[in-house]
Amino acid sequence: MNIAILGSGGREHALCYKLKQSPKIEKIYCIPGNAGTGFVALNLNIDISNFEEIYKAITKLQIDYVIVGPEQPLVNGIVDFLENKNIKVFGPNKFASKLEGSKAFMKNLCKENNIPTARFATFDSLEGLEDFINNSKVPIVVKADGLAAGKGVAICQTKNDAILEAKEILNGKFKSSRTVVIEEFLKGEELSYFILVNQDEYIFFGSAQDHKRVGEGETGLNTGGMGAYSPAPILNEALENKIKNKIIEPTLKGLKKLGGSYKGILYAGLIICEGEPLLIEYNIRMGDPECQVIMTLLETDLMEIIESVVNNKIKQLKIKWSSEKSMTIVLCANGYPQKYIKNSEIKNLNNIKLNDDDFIFHAGTYEKDKIIFSHGGRVLNITSRSKDFKTSKNRILNILEKIDWKDGFYRKDIGWRLKI
Ligand code: AMP
Ligand code: GLY
User: Fold this and answer.
1) pTM of the full predicted structure?
2) What's the topology of domain 119-184?
């Protein structure tokens, strides 16, 4: 069959790499893709917010399945749009996508179903906002309600900063929404926990730990993710049972009570405080860069998994995982996550010899006349899997040394919790 993957990040390159191994697939298209996806798939230069153009390509190229990488088209209802046209598509519908698309929706669902999460309040106007912040403890977390490409969260050290940030959101700093969510700051260890869901049934789909802050020692601004490793050593059976019983199952039941249901990948962003999981956020897709490490450990045919979810046959799935340890370090453009350099040539990439357990997943890159240029903030994901995290990290650092790019930087302390 022919498939199309929507998106252009490291996550989508990793999905292409994994799907390329499937004997079920003839052609892989990536919309719009990047230089790396261009090595394993055919890139189609279509804007992923243009559903009609995507539909035209699907019919013209006889694409059988669509796999949606990023959240924006899901929140905008691409699944409903394509399903109405009888196209098979992997991802949640518009209603279920509110779990990520609206933090207020997610927080209210938590409240109604006793799901452990940070205490919060939402505001559509200034009324009561200053009083609420003044009566809270710092640090305090201020979030935009809608999607904000990873930039909608500010951890404020003073009440004044929190009030200023909240006012900016109310004044329309982010196009997606003017509602602001104020949250208690939670201290603990973060865990990305993934499941595949079809309506009432779900199955584990990997765990990872990411590093959200741009600076070493977890300092500086929040980013989309600077590096990750899988599996997450913090996850044990007792913790997993709590995650399922206190968070996942009440969420799926809560959606049902509202007349909805979930299909696709659900990513719970958790914080573990003294052995107890609390939900920070839901994402309705694979994590990026978590996907890169999880895909390198997945042994089952990914297309078989996707078909099982789309056709409600999740119960029959037996997913096999490698027992190895995978890590990825993100090479970013100088300036990221603020204004960063673009169109900068990355030299020597094609000369680097990788063994079967090393991968360079592209994110913000494009190719012109066989030369690779940077294009986005997160540019390359150097990924390695081996018998232990230390070996994986050493191999990654070795590859990073060989990449000749003066305009990039990466965090050298990825995996610091592993004490390797
Ligand atoms: P979100 O967009 O809600 O996932 O938040 C992005 C990141 O901000 C999370 O991965 C955490 O690192 C941090 N964060 C968000 N909410 C909180 C909170 N209530 N307490 C502590 N850190 C938070
Ligand atoms: N790595 C965090 C995310 O994908 O949202």
Assistant:
1) 0.96
2) Dna Ligase; domain 1 (3.30.1490)
User: Which ligand neighbours the alpha carbon of 153 most closely?
Assistant: 1
Predicted pLDDT at 404: 94
Architecture of the CATH domain 2-93:
3-Layer(aba) Sandwich (3.40)
Residue 257 CA neighbour count, 13 Å, CB half: 10
Atom of ligand 2 nearest to the CA of 210: 1
Which residue intervals of the chain bear CATH 3.40.50.20?
Answer: 2-93
Q: What is the pLDDT of residue 290?
A: 98
Query: How confident is residue 127, by pLDDT bands cut at 50, 70 and 90?
Result: confident
Give the number of the ligand closest to the Cα of residue 210: 2
Residues touching ligand 2 (Cβ under 6 Å) are 210, 224-225, 283, 287-288, 290
204-247: per-residue pLDDT in tens?
999 999 999 999 999 998 899 999 999 999 999 999 999 999 99
What is the spatial distance between Cα 186 and Cα 168, in angstroms, rounded to a whole number?
Answer: 23
* Ligand 1 pocket residues where CB is under 6 Å: 118, 141, 143, 153, 155, 183, 185-186, 190, 212, 222, 269, 280-281
Can you name the CATH fold of 189-316?
D-amino Acid Aminotransferase; Chain A, domain 1 (3.30.470)
Cα radius of gyration (the chain): 21
Per DSSP, the three-state class of 348 is: coil
